[in-house]
Amino acid sequence: MGAESSGVFSYHKEDELVGIEGDKNLLMGWLMNEEQRQTVVSVVGMGGSGKTTLVARTFKDEIVKRHFECYAWITVSQSYVIEDLLRRLIKEFHKAKKEEVPADMNAMSYNELLEILVNYLETKRYLVVLDDVWDVHLWDKIRFSFPDKQLGSRVMLTTRREDIASSSFGVESHVHKIQPLERGDAWELFSMKAFSSYPNKSCSTEKLVEKCEGLPLAIVALSGLMSSKKSLTEWSTIYNSLNWHLTNNPLLEPMKSILLFSFNDLPYRLKQCFLYCSLFPEDHVIVNHRLITLWIAEGFVEHVEGLTPEKVANSYLMELIFRNMLQQRFRGPLVACKMHDLLREIALSIAKKEKFCAVHDGSETVEETGALRLSIQTTNGEIGSCTGISRLRSFLVFATGVSSFSFSNKLPFDLKLLKVLDLEDVPLDCLPDNLTSLFNLKYLNLSGTPITELPESIGKLRNLQALNIR
Hints:
Blueprint: E1 2-7, E2 10-11, E3 17-18, H1 21-32, E4 39-44, H2 51-59, H3 62-67, E5 70-77, H4 82-96, H5 110-121, E6 126-133, H6 138-142, E7 154-159, H7 162-165, E8 172-178, H8 183-194, H9 203-212, H10 216-226, H11 232-240, H12 242-248, H13 253-264, H14 268-277, E9 286-287, H15 288-298, H16 309-322, E10 327-331, E11 334-338, H17 341-353, E12 358-360, E13 373-378, E14 394-399, E15 420-422, E16 443-445, E17 466-468
InterPro entries: Apaf_helical (IPR042197), Disease_R_plants (IPR044974), Leu-rich_rpt (IPR001611), LRR_dom_sf (IPR032675), LRR_R13L4/SHOC2-like (IPR055414), NB-ARC (IPR002182), P-loop_NTPase (IPR027417), WH-like_DNA-bd_sf (IPR036388)
Domain Disease resistance R13L4/SHOC-2-like LRR: 392-470
GO biological process, one term: defense response to other organism
């Protein structure tokens, strides 16, 4: 039987949590309830959401310490050796009770270490914390170390992956999902770090806090950066050049590293799919079906015997959501997803460096960048001149708040290699004349445009696999 809950918490100075008594009490309740069978308690959330801090506060509580006869905390991380984890568990259990650690453990085999641990634990009520779990198979490898003699023992784990948190552990289990900070709590945390007293909120500081989307790690990092800036002009400059600061400012490096862990752990195909999401505007809710079709047209989706490309692509999307890299949303009745603003900024900086994609606002001249994918996000219905981007594979246009849009009858550049042309919701009067020269085009999205009929020449697009006109 599993139970699930959601927690919201706020902070005070020195990053200590306040206002989390409800969350902490919930965890303590699961740790110390009447259930005598071994129980696993998972705390899940994206990188920097405060999982480890909350679990540490619970683990260190004197009432919890008195309830268990022995306890150990180990950090697992992305790469681990199971024998090393067992050695560290044995050391932690012995050190916590000020007992002598067994000698010559480094020379011991897996079976010898397992025997020591099982013999030590089988008559005790124990508490174990497995912090920062990435491997879905870890529990199967380590569970035999934790005997269940119906003494009320508990195992807690923290993870960024929802598929791990909701695994079938074969024992009693509970899931606690960390939620973002509420707006008021986020502003309070930011203010305490960035200012010595509460200032009048400026537009740029409010926007900066909003960009953190309630992620404590990001709020603390950005407020630290802002603490040395005294004028509204400086705050505004930071907001407008945030992508540069994420790439170059050493003050933001620790936060960036923590968020990059999740990206670096992705398989290659999922990295491509994730970076592709950064082509959509900030806060854009992306309908899953649209995203999946784009990935397929781009060739990101591998062929799997017995499965349609759509099913494989959907499994990629679910994996990114399980890993808390994308957030599940709805757009009306349609299942959709969204990218966290700061993850998007980091994705854009990676994508730019790798020439994977680029985003422009339409007013600037787009010159040779080597990027294979381009997103124009215009608010005035125009696209500046584009030169030297004939290698482009994907071209997406987002026209926000404009009533008309024109390519001046022609696409603004030679796009012989283009596979994807996405003009959804763009108020186009007619299709550009040279559209039919795009003989590599696989996906054409005209959904939400005023276009009511297609020219017969559309039949020349022999490689077109998906045409969306609804």
